[in-house]
Amino acid sequence: MRPKDPKKDILLRIKAMELIVRDGFDGFSMHKLAKVSKIATATIYIYFKDREDLIHQLCADAANSLSEATLADFNPDVSFKTGLKKQWQNRITFYLENPQTVQFLEMVKHSPYYEKVSELKSKLISETMHRFVKNAIENKQLVPLPLEVYWSVAFSPMYQLVKFHLDGHSLGKRPFKLSEETLDQCLQLVIKALKPPK
User: Fold this and answer.
1) pTM of the entire structure?
2) How far is Cα 149 from Cα 41, in angstroms, rounded to an integer?
3) Helix axis angle, 99-109 relative to 6-23, nearest 10°?
4) Which of 29, 30, 49, 50 shows the shortest CA–CA distance to 39?
5) Conformational region of residue 134, where left means phi above 0, alpha means psi within -120 to 50, and beta covers everything else
6) Cα-Cα-Cα-Cα dihedral of 37, 38, 44, 50, to 10°?
7) Mean pLDDT of 21-25
């Protein structure tokens, strides 16, 4: 068997993700990938067992990238306000710097491959976030909530601002660019909403 060329491996992963984002999972084939990569179809099978193996590896790549970005310089033992702000910053940076991966992950979310991504979710992320939330509740900085409610209040506003930013406009086609001031204003309201009543 011929040795793997790391540059070809990276190229194939990049081009495969581009094709899936453009054409969807149903429109993706090894033949199309060979054509856009300018690599013989048979060569692709040196790197990936089959189409499913390639897609599963792309899911793993995307899930790992998001996990690493989410935990970058994050300390679960800081105050809820400081920790949530860091989480917002990490997630926003990932979304703005990796639009293709984000689109791919969104497509995966609505596909049969989502189960694979769920399996790949880092145990470290789950444990770290659990510790962060547990500390915030114990320190009376966060009201205890079901996970779905917590997630909706803590992160949905941030994701909506990012969407407005990526679209270049907000409601009614008003021009919009995410600023530190807008982000901070939204974050303060979220922290206030999640704080236990006195």
Assistant:
1) 0.88
2) 47
3) 60
4) 30
5) alpha
6) 60
7) 96
* Pair 101, 62: CB distance under 8 Å: yes
As given in the structure block, the two tokens for residue 35 are 């054509």
Q: Where are the alpha helices (DSSP H) in the chain?
A: 6-23, 30-37, 41-47, 51-71, 80-97, 99-109, 114-120, 123-138, 147-167, 180-194
Per-residue model confidence as pLDDT tens digits over 101-117: 999 999 998 998 887 66
Q: Side chain identity at 39, as an amino acid letter?
A: I
Cα-Cα-Cα-Cα dihedral of 71, 77, 80, 86, to 10°? -30
What is the spatial distance between Cα 164 and Cα 114, in angstroms, rounded to a whole number?
25
SS3 174: coil
Tell me the torsion sign for CA atoms 66, 113, 152, 160.
positive
CA distance 28 to 20: 6
For the chain, report the end-to-end CA distance as a whole number of angstroms: 68
pLDDT at site 115: 78
